[in-house]
Amino acid sequence: MTQQQLAEKVGIKFQQIQKYETGMNRVSASRLWDIAEALSVPVSYFFEGMDSVDVVSPEAASGASNLPSDILADKEALELVRSYYAIPENQRRRLFELARVLSDAAA
């Protein structure tokens, strides 16, 4: 499904879908529900592979490291997210797993 097709099903402009995909805009719970319905998947689909250990409150995350409270307000972080989503999906998944392994090794 293209971004345009998804946007039409959800009732928004495709540019908004692009902003969700790149992380420029956050996806509200109600919008996530709309997207799940448009894709004919349960909302839980977007959280597959997560367990309770992976879920950290924003308060805990900001106190646990030197991350800014709004990470995407950081120019470098936003550029990194945009570059990440420009990578083909199969390579992006492998890069994600590599980053996860490296961050675990550094801890």
TrEMBL record:
Residues 1-46 form the HTH cro/C1-type domain. SMART domains: HTH_XRE. SUPFAM superfamilies: lambda repressor-like DNA-binding domains. Pfam families: HTH_3. Signal peptide: none annotated. This is Helix-turn-helix transcriptional regulator. The lineage of its organism: Bacteria, Pseudomonadati, Pseudomonadota, Alphaproteobacteria, Rhodobacterales.
